Amino acid sequence: MSDLLAKILTEIIVALPWTLAMTGLSFAFGALFAIPLCGLRTAHNPILRNCALSLILTFRSIPPIVWLFLIFFGVGSDLIPLSPFVSAVIGLGLITAANVAEIYRGALKAVPAGQYEAARALGLPALLQYHDVLIPQIFRLALPSLATYAIGLLKDTAVASTIGVHDLAFSAYRVSQETFRGIEVYAAFGLVYFLISLAMAYATRGLDRRLRERISR
Prior knowledge:
The chain is mainly alpha-helical. Helices cover about 85% and strands about 0% of the residues.
């Protein structure tokens, strides 16, 4: 049992950084790409709106594992050499962008119209209106949904093991095959996912509390 525990801990130490990096990079890439996508989604031009909607529906409708296969075995094999990790970040990042763009759009709609009018009444440049008045409110409104999605993304990274990324799911499968102790191995790795998700949830609560205090000043 001690040998099994030592092996599990060793694999977790090696695989955990890959899982966290994949989650963080995919979320960051998606959150940034979601900004222009949300802008197009809320544009006055119906052509731009429909183009953005088509992209969002495409990214959200196709399962993550299919995107990863298309990018790694398609683009990564025939056009541009891509490692399994990079392919996973791109695939999960595109899906994240589509979902986060809709979260941004919902937050924009949730801000009372009076807040936009008040920001304009201050006489500040448009950039400062968003930075000082609107963005803190938009981000606070979007934060719960963003946190929920980020936790879901952490779990979705497990599909990257199918293209060879040495993440927690990949390591769990490998250890279970070597030791024939699947229940213990997957329970241990599942506990790691649970603890990370719990930490993310608590961190989100703290950030939301600080944002509320900042806005109320």
